[in-house]
Design goal:
Number of domains: 3
Bound molecules: ligand C2E, calcium ion
Number of strands: 22
Distance between the termini: 98 Å
Shape: elongated
Helix content: 40-55%
Radius of gyration: 51 Å
Strand order of the largest sheet: 13-14-16-17-18-19-20-21
Number of helices: 20
Structural class: alpha/beta
CATH topology of the largest domain: TIM Barrel
Length: about 625
């Protein structure tokens, strides 16, 4: 039943109910007041009669007097009866034929009855009783109710009908107005809710739900008309960094500008959706490979100009994955999945866009499998640790080792940390993994200590560990367990990790610093950040990213960067590590630039714990014998 009908029916129901109650009450009021009047009248009479009635004295006089009384009644049918012990003594009036009947019914009266209705021969009468001073007699009056009642009822009915009709008319209108107003408001609210449920708040673009709906419709239409269509999935490169460095408001504004550039690059019949975060999708009906390429190039071209927000100019490129119907798939889930794979490919190749190809799929199957197996490997503590020596330039001694996670997959062989660490981060198991590596490293250090080697230990810490306020506590408990000297531990953190909520991160780092741990900034020089954090955080070491070191002999610009970082580090009272030293030429150049510490394949590749034990013995002995 519609809301309008419901409102109408309930108002009508209430009106009818109110009218019936009102009618009933009015009717009762009128009949009762009529009975009351009769009683009062009788009481008045009885006082007067008592003085003149000489029952059972002079009957004649009494009869005359009663007749007199009867005539004083306005209604001719009224009769008066004087009764003793239910026996009728005197009767006057027109209803003498029914006296026996009246007498029968009168027997039922109790003393408390004052007036009421009595039915005789189908006619209703009011009756009223008044006790005479001589208790043996009562004065009873009967008055036909028929006429009175009929008049009252018909007047009432007429009034009720007129008022009822007016009220009904008003009620119908009010309910119609009310219901149409309410249903209009509800319609508006529903529309708003529907819009909210199907659109993204920030950009106003359709969301994932609406996109899948449209994708389904486009698929059906394309199947019917035998036409191709294209689906793009895209996200902004390095958006997370922009968001973390320049703030969420800046990030939001960037997304809005990005979506408006997207809108200008597509046709009217194409639709854009924001799937969440910096992920967008574009559906292009009736589009083949050529059309898709033209469109994606237009989109990428539109992103070439930097975005200027609050006087800050930032470049933001997108990676687009393209999938085509019917070439790549004929169901919406598959198409979305393949577009995602293609986007991942575009990101990896930094190629702007990638069109889905089945070879990419094998990568994604491998990824899914690895993710599944990685969870088991971490659960079963199967991630091992290798150690790469870190050598002091001045002392030519191994002063520390970097712990590097290793995963030997039972079928796929060695999986590099560059592949499985991001997976562990994505799956939320990186904290467990980090603590496992940390504990294993301390265990191995304890072992080397028994052989009289006491290198420091460098541990890589992911961004996600620095979000966890209980992390320092967990680290402290492991250090205590192994009774390890905390000052020998250095945590390596990448610049981008620091950019996640600097306040929170610095609180955690301060805590770790209080325990005595050192802090190194890893991959220094690659981060997309200001150097502001360097003076805010307790940084001990800068670790120059290996890409600069690998190329510093062939690229003067890289050499200049290395030189600058070393000077910057020293000016900030930090030690500087050069990582990725692969040959003696690089080593000599770095030594001339006054780098403090070196690490790289030239000295040693990362080694398993046992291998490192012998390396430590060999290298340090060689150092002392030198
Ligand atoms: P990273 O922290 O920059 O580690 C140094 C990487 O450079 C290591 O790669 C190491 O084998 C490699 N390397 C060292 N010297 C040379 C050199 O002379 N030439 C070249 N080409 N490479 C060199 P690996 O072990 O594959 O680790 C890769 C990355 O995985 C690490 O980069 C680190 O970011 C991450 N990672 C490894 N273990 C862990 C871990 O336990 N926790 C976390 N959060 N990340 C880890
Ligand atoms: Ca590192
Ligand atoms: Ca590094």
């Amino acid at each position: 039943m519609s809301l309008r009908t419901q409102i109408l029916l309930s108002i009508l129901g209430i009106t009818f109910f109110a009218q019936s109650v009102f009618g009933f009450l009015a009717y009762r009021q009128i009949t009762e007041s009529r009975g009351d009047q009769l009683t009062i009248f009788l009481q008045y009479l009885s006082r007067e009669v008592a003085e003149r009635l000489t029952l059972p004295g002079d009957r004649y006089v009494t009869d005359i007097y009663l007749e007199e009384l009867r005539q004083r009644f306005s209604t001719p049918e009224s009769i008066l009866i004087v009764q003793k012990n239910n026996k009728i003594e005197y009767i006057a009036g027109n209803n003498q034929n029914h006296i026996a009947e009246i007498s029968d019914q009168m027997e039922a009266y109790t003393d408390s009855d004052k007036h009421g209705l009595i039915k005789m021969n189908g006619i209703e009468y009011y009756w009223a009783v008044s006790r005479l001073p001589d208790n043996n007699y009562q004065l009873i009056m009967l008055e036909p109710a028929g006429n009175e009642e009929a008049t009252i009822a018909s007047t009432l009915r007429l009034r009720l009908i007129i008022f009822g009709a007016i009220i009904l008319w008003a009620a119908v209108w009010i309910s119609l107005l009310l219901s149409s107003k309410i249903s209009r408001q509800l319609d508006e609210k529903n529309e708003q809710l529907k819009h909210l449920a199907l659109h993204d708040n920030l950009t106003g673009l359709p969301n994932r739900t609406l996109l899948s709906d449209r994708l389904g419709q486009t698929l059906l239409q394309s199947q019917r008309n035998n036409q191709p269509f294209a689906l793009f999935l895209m996200d902004l490169d390095r958006f997370k960094e922009v968001n973390d460095t320049l703030g969420h408001q800046f990030g939001d504004e960037l997304l809005k500008r990005f979506s408006s550039r997207l809108q200008k690059s597509i046709r009217n019949e194409d639709s854009i959706a924001r799937l969440g975060g910096d992920e967008f999708a574009i559906l292009l009906p009736q589009t083949n490979l050529e059309g898709a390429k033209t469109c994606v190039e237009r989109i990428l071209h539109s992103m070439e100009d930097p975005f200027c927000i609050n006087d800050i100019s930032t470049e933001s490129k997108a990676s687009v994955g393209i999938v085509l119907y019917p070439d790549h798939g004929d169901n919406t889930d598959i198409l979305m999945q393949y577009a995602d794979i293609a986007m991942y490919q575009a990101k990896k190749l930094q190629s702007g866009y990638a069109i889905y190809s089945p070879e990419q799929n094998t990568h994604s199957i491998r990824r899914l499998r690895l993710m599944n197996d990685l969870r088991d490997a971490v659960d079963q503590n199967k991630i091992s640790v290798s150690y790469q020596p870190i050598i002091s330039n001045s002392q030519h001694k191994i002063i520390s080792v970097e712990a590097l996670a290793r995963w030997q997959h039972h079928e796929l062989g060695n999986i590099t940390p560059d592949e499985f660490i991001p997976m562990a981060e994505q799956m939320g198991i990186i904290r467990t993994l980090t603590l496992q590596v940390f504990e294993q490293a301390l265990k191995d250090c304890q072992h080397w200590a028994q052989q009289n080697h006491h290198p420091g230990i460098n541990i890589n810490i992911s961004t996600y560990c620095l979000q966890d306020l209980s992390f320092p506590e967990k680290i402290t408990s492991i250090i205590k367990n192994y009774n390890f000297d905390a000052s020998l531990i250095e945590l390596e953190i990448t610049e981008s990790a620091l950019m996640h909520d600097l306040n929170r991160v610095s609180r955690i780092l301060e805590q770790l610093n209080t325990i005595g741990l050192k802090l190194a900034i890893d991959d220094f020089g690659t981060g997309f950040s200001s150097l502001n954090y360097l003076k805010k955080l307790p940084v001990d070491t800068l670790k120059i990213d290996k890409t600069f070191i690998l190329d510093m002999c062939s690229k003067p610009s890289d050499k200049a960067i290395v030189k600058t970082i070393i000077e910057l580090g020293h000016n900030l009272n930090c030690k500087v590590i050069a990582e990725g030293v692969e040959n003696s030429t690089t080593l000599n150049k770095l030594a001339l630039l006054n780098v403090d510490i070196m690490q790289g394949f030239f000295y040693s590749k990362p080694l398993p714990a046992s291998g490192l034990g012998s390396f430590l013995a060999e290298y340090n002995n060689q150092g002392t014998s030198d």
